Structures are given as C-alpha cells and as structure tokens.
Amino acid sequence: MPVSIIPPVLNPDLRKSAAANSAAAKPKGAFILAAEKAQNPSLNYLLGTLPAADMASLSEHLELVPLRLGDMLYEPNTQLQHAYFPTSAIVSLHYVTASGASSEISGVGNEGMVGISLFTGGNTTPSSAMVHTSGYAYRLERSQLKTEFNRNGKLQQILLRYTQALITQVSQTAACNRHHSVEQQLSRWLLLTLDRITSGEFVLTQELVANMLGVRRESVTAAAASLQDIGCISYRRGHISVINRKDLEKCSCECYAVVRKETQRLLGVS
Amino acid sequence: MPVSIIPPVLNPDLRKSAAANSAAAKPKGAFILAAEKAQNPSLNYLLGTLPAADMASLSEHLELVPLRLGDMLYEPNTQLQHAYFPTSAIVSLHYVTASGASSEISGVGNEGMVGISLFTGGNTTPSSAMVHTSGYAYRLERSQLKTEFNRNGKLQQILLRYTQALITQVSQTAACNRHHSVEQQLSRWLLLTLDRITSGEFVLTQELVANMLGVRRESVTAAAASLQDIGCISYRRGHISVINRKDLEKCSCECYAVVRKETQRLLGVS
DNA sequence: TGCTGTCTGTACGCTACCGAACATATGAGA
DNA sequence: TCTCATATGTTCGGTAGCGTACAGACAGCA
C-alpha cells in the first residue's frame, strides 16, 4: 500500500527572510525557467482582481519566492507561516493515509492560494502542500494575510469565492475517486494542470502523477499509453505533452468541466 | 451505473412563510419524533457558540422547520434561499454524476450549517443537499445570513472555522474513496452519523447508505453483515444500531478520527 | 389475518485495479 | 562517448467491487 512520495526538498530560498526579497532574480531561482518573464503579482488571478489601491497597500508585504518540485509548503498539523499565491508554480494539496498511500485533494495554481486555513482560523490542516510544478509564487506573512482579510475589502471577497471554488474541486475529486476510471481521472488531472501552465508540456514523471491520483504507477503507464494511442497526448521520460486538447476532454469525465466552469463562474477566470 | 436516489419529497412545511413559524409544534412536524424535546437554536453548535447579544438579534430571524427524509434543501446550480442549521436532522451534501451515480461529499448535522455558498458569494453549487435523517433545523434567509456574516462578529468567525471543518471532511472523503474498503467506509459513515444523533439507532435502509457511500446496495449488505458478525452493530429492516462503538472504531479507517479531531479542534464540539 | 410492496440475502461472472517482480530504455552527467 | 540511476514497459496472479438476477422475509396496511 505505501506509495513512495518524492523526498521533500529543502529549498533554502523558502527559509530566507523578507529582506532577501530579490532572491528570485538571482541564479537560485533563475534556473527554473530561463525564459520566464519578469514576475508580477497580478499573474495570480486572486491578486490580479484587487483594485489598485488595495494592491498598493499589499504589495510591500508580498515576497516573490521560487518554488521547486518537491518543496513542501506545509505538512500535516504544523503551523503555516505564509499564504502562497502561485504565479507559475503549481502546488498539490494532498493527504497521506496512515498506511502511507497518498492522494491529491486539490491542485492550486495561479488561480488560487495555498493557506486557506490562515483566514478561516484553523491555522493547520491534516493535509500537506507539495510543489509539483516548479515556478514562482508570491507569499504573504500569516499576520499580514489575517489583517488584510479582516479589512472586509475585495481581498476578503475574492478569497471567500476562491474557498468555494476549492470546495468544489475537492468535492469533485471525492466523487471522481469513487466513480471514474484511472484514464478519466488522468485526463481530468492533465486538463486541470494544463489550465495552470502556459507551455502545454508538463515536466513530471508518471510516478509523480500516480502519487497525485493515488493509484499505482503502472496504472498511469497504461492510461497514458492509451491516451497516446488515441493521439491526445505524447510523452517521453519525464515529460507529458497535450497534443489534442479536445480529444482529451472527451476522454475525461465531466469532473473537469464542472470544476472549470465553477472556477470561471466564481472567480471570473480559469 | 445509475444508482437510484430516493425520490425527492416535497415537504410542504418548507414552503411555508416565516409567518408560520410555529408550524413545527403542530402535527405536521410532531410525527417525526414524538418524544423529541422542545427545540432550541443552541442545539446547533454553531448557533450555540454565539454570545447572548448576537443571538438576540439573530433569533427573531431564525425559523424552525421540520426536515424529512428525502427533502432536498438545494439542487445543483439553483439559488439557495436559506441557510439551514440542523438541530436534530442530518443532511447529506452529495454529487450526482453525469451517469446518475451519487456519492456523499459531506454530512451536516447539529455541528454545522447547510448553505456555505451563501456567504462565500457563489450562491449555488454543483452538488445537492438531501435530508437523510428526519428532524429539525433552524433556517435563516439568505439576505439575513449575509447581513449577519458581514457584521464580522462571532458568527463570521465560527462560520469560517466551520468552513475549514467542512473542507477537512470533504478532503477525507476524497482520500477515503480512493484508498479504503467499503467496510471501513461504512464504519466511518456510521460513526460520523452517530456523533450527530442522540439515539444510537439509525432509521435508514441499506439502499440509502449505499447511495451515500456511492457503492452498490449489495456491497453495503455484505459489509453490514460482516460488522454484525463481529458484534459492532445489529440491524433489521430499515434500522441499524451501533452495539459496540469501540470495535466499530477499530473497523473504520483513520478518516473518522481525523474528521472528528479536526471538528473538535476547530469548533470545540462534537 | 392475509396481501403486497419493499428491504435484505445470495449467487454468478466480469472487470478494473492492485501488488510484486523483472525487463528495457532513456538521458543527464562524468 | 559511456555509464548508470531512474523512468517506463510488461507480465501474472489475486481480489474488491460491479452488474445482474432472483429468492426470501419482514412490516405496514387493508
């Protein structure tokens, strides 16, 4: 039953103080994607919807940090110190069972935020947050987030809406885990992830995807081979590319469409 | 694949105006449980935590309604008109797939509220809310809930904490659906439901439980028989009784304990 | 008391997915 | 260019849960 998870990477950048705000512009972060454009908070949809005035007061507290594959943003029942607003990174919220098996609860990309529990008041959760696609995120200190949230402005409004979008995604994951095949779930996962990146190609192994879905690596291999035969995707060692998005949507269960539609409706984005 | 759901019951009580506030004391509601004590908003934990002052302003807007097995409190993508705070009723939030199969996303009893999306701002959800244990709930009109929530008082605080508890339960359902056996899931579901009632006996069919878990009725029959053999539960046509709670906890996966612990931590109850 | 609808028990073949073991092939780094 | 860690391919038996079908048994009601 135990499914091996990527060994957590200690990303020294994540330990730096806010003083080292420009760290991301230095080599340590630059390796992630050389061609990546200069980062900007508004690349995150939640931050992007804030009026200029709100953003002005917030921006001095936002710290750009590079997130790398395997970085743990939080672990079960440990106090979160920051909320993360991904711009190009993608984070997986997942739960690891007592027997060591894992499964993703929800993904978080540039449409969302990691650290809901900071403003709901719980501060910790039984789940973990792991980076599965390297990139950048802006982070905000715990106390700052709480302060901003309690201003009852646009940030509170959009975070509450995002919370509902998150609940929708988690709910859909629950139903999907119950009723849909691995191939359908793989299609759903690829589509949801595709919506969070710009490139159309994923840099990840089938083993990692298997951990996300909570299935065996072999099951992912079989499903991926099937999708490749149909011509939806193509893949090679450590890479997956979506070739035909329309066909991939046909291979997915409705869960993808439900989540996407709700996310668009609630946040006005995708 | 299609799993038949109980045909939605049109509960005339739910259509009455606030003027018929005392409806619950009349025969229509009385049948539910003759021995049931007079209802009181503080039987719901969320309402129960409110300071007297907050409660005073709220209580005039709270309407006691009887909820009966099969009542639908909301359906996918339709505007909610009320938030419900169960006292003795239990509601199932569930999703019905495109092929007609259903599975529970979370249960809501006297520890919670049905209608989160009213204050998050979405107003609708892709899921449904169906009563699976008859009883009572206090309800609050949509606009009243929003007004109260935006006061930024204790109600907002406790609702945000409840939202996190809900996310925990949904997340755990997702992981449980992926990794645990029907017998473990049945045990978890019975325990969670047991925490929401006072009697120790459930009035429900195996078919209904199967719809909740999203599995076949026969799978529930087998799991229930197994639990009965062990001596955890006993059941007869339309009734399930928990005989030995400790043993039932041993038959459950850790998901029950995780949800219960988090609920207690976040709400200080259950 | 007897009828009847509904709830529960049982059986059968089937399929998807699991667990384990091992073969092959890729590509990053020496 | 070669090496080797690691990613992917393949196989095989096992099993949990599904879909279907039907039998028995309970309980509400006439």
Describe this structure in words.
The structure is a homodimer of 270-residue chains. The first copy, chain A, has 270 residues and is of the alpha+beta class. Helix content of chain A is 40%, strand content 19%. The first copy, chain A, has a four-stranded antiparallel beta sheet with strand order 2-6-4-5. In chain A, strands 1-7-3 form a three-stranded antiparallel beta sheet. A three-stranded antiparallel beta sheet of chain A has the order 8-10-9. At the A-B interface, strand 5, helix 4, helix 6 and helix 11 of A face strand 5, helix 4, helix 6 and helix 11 of B. Chain A binds a DNA duplex (30 and 30 nucleotides) through residues 1, 181-182, 205-207, 215-219, 221-222, 224-225, 235-238. Chains A, B: Keywords: DNA-binding, Transcription, Transcription regulation. Chains A, B: Residues 180-246 form the HTH crp-type domain. Chains A, B: This is CRP-like cAMP-binding protein. Chains A, B: Pfam families: HTH_Crp_2 (PF13545).
For this entry, give a set of tags.
homodimer; 270 residues; alpha+beta; 4-stranded antiparallel beta sheet; 3-stranded antiparallel beta sheet; 11 helices; 10 strands; disordered N terminus; DNA-binding
**Ranges of chain A with pLDDT <50 over ≥5 residues?**
1-10, 15-35
Q: Which percent range describes the beta-strand content of chain A?
A: 15-25%
| SSE succession of chain A | HHHEEEEEHEEHHHEHHEEHH
Taking Cα atoms only, what radius of gyration of chain A do you get, to the nearest Å?
18 Å
State the helicity of chain A in percent bands.
40-55%
Q: Give the biggest sheet of chain A.
A: 4 strands, antiparallel
Structural class of chain A: alpha+beta
In DSSP terms, counting alpha (H) and pi (I) runs of 4 or more, how many helices of chain A?
A: 11
Instruction: Tell me the number of strands of chain A.
Output: 10
- Terminal-residue CA separation of chain A: 35 Å
What is the chains' assembly state? Answer: homodimer
The strands making up the biggest β-sheet of chain A line up spatially as 2-6-4-5
Mean pLDDT metric of chain A: 88
Biggest interface, chains and residue tallies: A-B, 47 and 47 residues
The coarse overall form of chain A would be globular
